[in-house]
Task: inverse folding
């Protein structure tokens, strides 16, 4: 028996592109309610960044104290992860207008950042307690610049500290997380000032979807991108429904009824932030533990797994054995009393080729054939 896990470098830095972990004992649940405080010197002077998240709403406060040109710099950015839009303003100097823009891909989630990396050459140097985190110390080459050393929290997989070890041996701390709270931030944190309301978008609608997202989904599914909604964003339907989950092949949308194991944690909203352990036998059979994660493969019928009154937020893990795995924190979206959730996989023989978790709003895949 060996243990397979997901390696996550949680700071969004180009510098960490060479970071990687070849073996992890745990994969952490995606975090969607937190406050993270960090400092970084990527731009020169020390900048203190505070990231607040509550579901699909994020506020990032950045403050660079003097001395910088023009005095201290204050930037606040509000992200709507469902509409994929952001507002940026100066909360201290009160500029004339907010700057509104769309975004795509990674917005700088401290628990995601560089994503899953598993490159050769990474070394684990040991363990250290740092600011209350129990962290693995990892090191990899950074070309002629020297070495990159990263402290990775064993519970959340967040990179809590990054140092550049220069060729001279001098260590420069680039990023350091100093505090994390999993208490949901108050709603007042996400208030948009009156002089920004004209620029602010309403709650997410089809008209506010970022340019290209529908095309991206259409390319993946081979159909109408407007028939689907990404399931990893924080738009939660108030009314419950029954979820019908299935795995399908991208493009053809042919059902994949076997060759994988499914596990679910329906208690993520009420349990302490869990860490999950995925055990893998030599023949590719997975075992699940940690939090409320439990296997549900035996409950599937013709490749369909059903959950009545699915909770507003839950975790899913799909194990394909040696080809890889897919895991996500899912937000409930109910478009009918029975709403279909799909994992659309590009290549079942190599899961790292990508896929997406999609709720089906309409169209022929909105129901499961009997």
Result:
């Amino acid at each position: 028996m060996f243990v397979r896990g997901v390696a996550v470098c949680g700071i969004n830095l180009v510098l960490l592109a060479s970071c990687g972990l070849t073996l992890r004992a745990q994969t952490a649940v995606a975090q969607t309610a937190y406050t993270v405080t960090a400092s970084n010197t990527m731009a020169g002077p020390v900048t203190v960044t505070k990231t607040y998240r509550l579901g699909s709403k994020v506020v990032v406060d950045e403050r660079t104290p003097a001395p910088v040109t023009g005095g201290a710099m204050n930037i606040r950015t509000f992200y709507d992860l469902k509409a994929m839009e952001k507002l940026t303003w100066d909360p201290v100097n009160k500029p004339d207008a907010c700057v509104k823009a769309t975004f795509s891909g990674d917005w700088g989630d401290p628990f995601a950042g560089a994503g899953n990396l598993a490159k050769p050459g990474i070394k684990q140097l040991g363990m250290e307690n740092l600011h209350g985190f129990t962290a693995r110390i990892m090191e990899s080459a950074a070309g002629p610049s020297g070495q990159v050393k990263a402290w990775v929290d064993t519970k959340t997989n967040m990179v809590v500290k990054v140092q550049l070890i220069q060729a001279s041996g001098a260590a420069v701390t680039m990023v350091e997380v100093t505090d994390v709270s999993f208490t949901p931030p108050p709603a007042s944190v996400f208030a948009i000032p009156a002089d920004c309301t004209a620029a602010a978008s309403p709650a997410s609608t089809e008209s506010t979807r970022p340019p290209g997202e529908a095309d991206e989904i259409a390319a993946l599914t081979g159909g109408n991108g407007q028939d689907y909604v990404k399931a990893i964003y924080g738009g939660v339907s108030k009314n419950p429904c029954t979820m019908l989950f299935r795995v399908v092949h991208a493009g053809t949308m042919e059902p994949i009824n076997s060759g994988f194991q499914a596990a679910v944690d329906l208690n993520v909203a009420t349990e302490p932030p869990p860490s999950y352990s995925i055990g893998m036998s030599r023949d590719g059979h997975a075992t699940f533990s940690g939090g409320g994660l439990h296997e549900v493969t035996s409950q599937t019928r013709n490749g369909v797994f059903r959950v009545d009154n699915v909770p507003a937020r839950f975790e899913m893990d799909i194990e394909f054995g040696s080809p890889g795995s897919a895991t996500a924190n899912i937000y409930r979206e109910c478009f009918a009393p029975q709403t279909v959730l799909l994992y659309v996989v590009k290549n079942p023989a190599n899961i790292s080729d990508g896929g997406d978790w999609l709720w089906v709003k309409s169209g022929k895949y909105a129901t499961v054939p009997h």
